[in-house]
Write a structure and sequence with these properties.
The complex is a heterotrimer of chains A (247), B (117) and C (138). Chain A has nine helices and seven strands, in the order ββαβββββαααααααα. Chain A is α+β, with helices and mostly antiparallel strands and 247 residues long. In chain A, α2 packs parallel to α6. Chain B has 117 residues and is mostly helical. In chain C, strands 1-2 form a two-stranded antiparallel sheet. In chain C, β1 and β2 form a beta hairpin. The longest helix of chain C has 32 residues. Chain C contains four helices and two strands. Chain C is mostly helical. The chains are: A alpha+beta (247), B mainly alpha (117), C mainly alpha (138). Chains B and C meet through α1, α2, α3 and α4 of B and α1, α2, α3 and α4 of C.
Chain lengths: 247, 117, 138
């Protein structure tokens, strides 16, 4: 009966090394432990200098995304046993600059999200006296799936295009744009499409499809992007054939 | 910051429709013309039969759409395969001209061949 | 790689990885992806073969017979068989992924992906039969 499992963790301490190194730790292999539990065990008992992000440990906050044996996962939702007998190689999410150990720099990602205007855009706010903006269950279903994103950035680590084209706005940002485009209360689709049909937008995507596979919330960013391509192409033809309308 | 209007939606729609047409029609055409008939599994239709068939304007239109859109489908897909698969983004212009150019030449050649019959 | 060029105490150097040139050989899913993308090469090759066949037809019965004779050579048959595999792979991947891009509605309900995929395959089958029938019988 195996009682421990080893974790090979990528360490990067900029004051001490210019290239990351791997450090091995032996942790108890418990049935109910996820990778995050093992990291906490290391931090508490073996090596207090290990740096990583985590918060809710229940798949909601999106902080603990890392690479486990080369695949982006939420470490709070990935059991150690899956990898027995081990070892498990734990690395920071790829396609992001590494600040320290398992911590990545997400500032670019946040900038990309903001560019999508992720809020309800109105041409004109309806007066308060008219009451709230109503929505039927069917209208909610249209975008609900895309609103489940927790910004864990696993899809950015899974997407080869993000790695190749650092400017590419990326899966989560485009799915977020669609979350508002498909919302019947929103009127900002045009503004978002203006950005997304240009360089670094939807047509940068070649539909590798990995973003949807790693997504812990089944948001299906790949689907969101493909639907956007079809819609933007239809818009393009419409504005070509009907240049007078639809300003 | 570039301000040019992207023409990508146009190329992508050719890629998309070409992909549909190729997926639907090419396997049958390729299997019959390139495998089944040459191997003698099916008797080859006579020259006259094929000629009258192709002289029909609907057939011509069909063949034109299949050839041209298949080429544009390739052009767009292959362009990005070169960008991403071999990281040749710096040759962007050259690759785009070569890919879409080849598709255009093929399109003109098919127009010329089909309506020159 | 040089380090500490812009090192400050509170904003140390980030470590940035580079994507290797042949990134797509390391993972099965990526290899499948690149194969799917390369099916387009065979699509284009066959489009040109078809064009060439029409050109031969245009040149008269003799040239056309020469072309048919070339189609019967082992090299041609081998190439066509390889191309056929790739083109079929294109069809399969295309039909399976189509529901991601295309959303059909009946009333307010979305047509399920599986139904769309089945419809795609049905259309493929019907069209193939129609093409064969027109080519050989009509």
């Amino acid at each position: 009966m195996q009682t421990t499992i080893s974790l090979e963790i990528q360490r990067y301490r900029p004051e001490q090394e210019s290239e990351p190194v791997y450090q091995s730790y032996e942790v108890p292999l418990r049935k109910d432990w996820v990778i995050l539990d093992a990291l906490n065990y290391i931090k508490d008992n073996l090596d207090g200098s290990l740096s990583y992000r985590w918060s809710c440990r229940m798949g909601v906050c999106g902080s603990c995304g890392m690479m486990a044996n080369g695949t982006p996962v939420l470490t709070c939702a990935t059991f150690l046993e899956t990898y027995a007998p081990g070892p498990i190689r734990v690395e920071p999410l790829i396609n992001f600059p590494v600040i320290r150990d398992l911590i990545i720099d997400m500032s670019e990602f946040i900038t990309k999200l903001k560019q999508m205007k992720p809020w309800i855009v109105r041409e004109e706010e309806q007066p308060l006296s008219d009451g709230e903006y109503l929505q039927t269950p069917d209208q909610l279903t249209e975008y609900k799936q895309y609103s489940m994103c927790i910004n864990c950035m696993l899809c950015y680590a899974a997407c080869p295009i993000v790695g190749l084209e650092p400017g590419f706005l990326g899966p989560a940002a485009i799915a977020l744009a669609q979350r508002y485009n498909f919302d019947n209360r929103d009127q900002g689709k045009k503004q978002r499409t203006e950005i997304l049909k240009e360089d670094n937008g939807i047509y940068e995507c070649t539909f590798v499809g990995e973003c949807s596979i790693v997504c812990p919330k089944s948001v299906d960013p790949a689907g969101a992007i493909q639907r956007y391509k079809v819609a933007a192409a239809a818009e393009w033809w419409k504005s070509l054939l009907l240049p007078w309308g639809n300003r | 910051m570039k301000t040019r209007k992207s023409i990508d939606p146009f190329w992508w729609s050719l890629f998309g429709t070409g992909g549909v047409i190729a997926a639907l029609c090419l396997p049958a055409l390729l299997f019959l013309n390139g495998v089944a008939i040459p191997l003698g599994w099916i008797e080859a239709p006579s020259y006259e039969h094929v000629l009258t068939l192709v002289k029909n304007s609907l057939t011509r239109l069909f063949l034109f759409v299949v050839i041209s859109l298949s080429l544009f489908h390739w052009a767009h897909r292959f362009r990005f395969t070169l960008y991403d698969g071999l990281q040749l983004k710096h040759l962007n212009q050259l690759i785009a001209v070569l890919c879409y150019g080849t598709a255009m030449i093929g399109t003109i050649a098919s127009l010329y061949t089909l309506w020159g019959l | 790689m040089t380090i500490n060029t812009q090192y400050t105490k509170f904003r140390p150097q980030r470590y940035q990885t580079r994507v290797p040139i042949f990134w797509w050989v390391h993972k099965w899913a990526h290899l499948r992806f690149i194969t799917r993308e390369l099916t387009s090469v065979f699509v284009a090759i066959y489009a040109f073969v078809l064009l060439f066949q029409l050109w031969a037809l245009n040149q008269g019965a003799e040239t056309y017979a020469l072309f048919l004779a070339w189609l019967r050579t082992p090299i041609s048959i081998g190439l066509h068989m390889v191309a056929l595999l790739f083109v079929i792979f294109h069809s399969i991947t295309w039909f399976n992924l189509a529901p991601k891009a295309l959303v059909l509605r009946l009333g307010t309900k979305r047509v399920p992906d599986a139904v769309l995929i089945v419809l795609n395959y049905l259309a493929w089958g019907v069209l193939s039969v129609v093409i064969a029938w027109i080519m050989l019988k009509a």
